[in-house]
Amino acid sequence: MHALPRGFLPVTTFGNAYPLDRLIQPFLPRLVPAVMVSYHFARNMPEGFPLPAFIDSGGFSALLPGARVLETPEGLGVIEREDQEPTELIHPDDVHALQSRLAHWGCPLDFPIPPAITDSDERARRLRLTLANARYALTLPRPERLTLFGVVVGWDAPSYTQCARELLAMGYRHLAIGGLVPRLSDLVLLERIVRGVRALQSNTDALHLFGLGHPERVAQAMALGATSTDSSSYVQNAARGISWEGAMPEDPSPLERAQSALRNLRACVRACRVRAGNGLNALAFPRIHCILAACRKSPTPPIRCASSPASNCRTHRAGFCA
Questions:
Q1: Cβ neighbours of 201 (radius 10 Å)
Q2: Which pLDDT value is given to residue 274?
Q3: What DSSP assignment string belongs to 225-291?
């Protein structure tokens, strides 16, 4: 069994959809101990990739146009994608088989419940099927290398907490919270969800938060008790010409975008250097001394820069500091 994932896990892809990922992959082992790969892109992942991988379930595809969450006669949840040709059916067995072959960490097929889903019956159905798939996954044989995380879904803090409680009762120790990205604007809710789930776990168990990738959000996650997060924001922003550390040329070349992606990634890795506790603590940026305001005290926590003059602070120049 591999060590648990810690810190920021950069999302990377395989195949031809995102060529920038191919440029930066050779440098990832210098910066991070592991990566996050979506189920859909992991199907193109080569054997022997140099970093251990957390392969998610691909459940986010249930939110795409043309996708439907269906229930099998056995009571399991599957995703039917009519936008694919031919129509694709994602079954928990497919997810488990791929994770068993390539992953060090994985999770059963889950079904996010975004704020746009307001129907109480559909919310309850997605939660029930997520738990059914989680229960089923524990009955399947898996290699010793693979550690399963139970995926916590919900629509408010109590439903997230109840989902986590049921997963732990099944026998899961390590949990991953999904569906947070569309709720990031509500920091009070984010804190209630994460703290509520973390309070049910032992300090030695892992808590992963899917989709948190901006350095501020990564630091908040660590302060609230998460042990790891993941995102593709570091490379998506670089592809759009956005750098979180330093300026970007007006029309950056592919190499300059790759360099920017690695700088953005480094900012996320540095943001993990914050201890869990009440609110947010000082971050240990080399030669940079910034403090994030406690997330409970500010709806949009600023970074206060202690550099003098402020032009000496790279995060200030990147527009992070207040």
A1: 18
A2: 64
A3: T-SEEEESHHHHHHHTT--SSS---SS--HHHHHHHHHHHHHHHHHHT----SSS--B--BTTB-EE
CA-closest candidate to residue 51, choices 88, 21, 81, 92: 21
pLDDT at 279 over 50: no
CB 17 within 8 A of CB 238: no
Is the residue at 295 inside a domain? no
pLDDT computed for residue 297 by the predictor: 33
Least confident range from 174-183, 221-230, 280-289, 299-308: namely 280-289
Tell me: the pLDDT tens digits for 84-127?
778 889 999 999 999 999 999 999 999 999 999 999 999 999 99
Residue 150 and residue 148: Cα distance in Å, rounded?
7
Task: Evaluate whether residue 12 is within a structural domain.
Answer: yes
Full residue range of the structural domain in which residue 271 is found: 7-279
Total structural domains within the chain? 1
Handedness of CA 94, 97, 102, 107 (dihedral sign): positive
Write the CATH number for 256: 3.20.20.105
What pLDDT is stored for residue 82 in this prediction?
Answer: 83
Residue 312 included in any domain? no
Tokens 């995926």 label which residue? 151
**Does residue 195 lie within any of the structural domains?**
yes
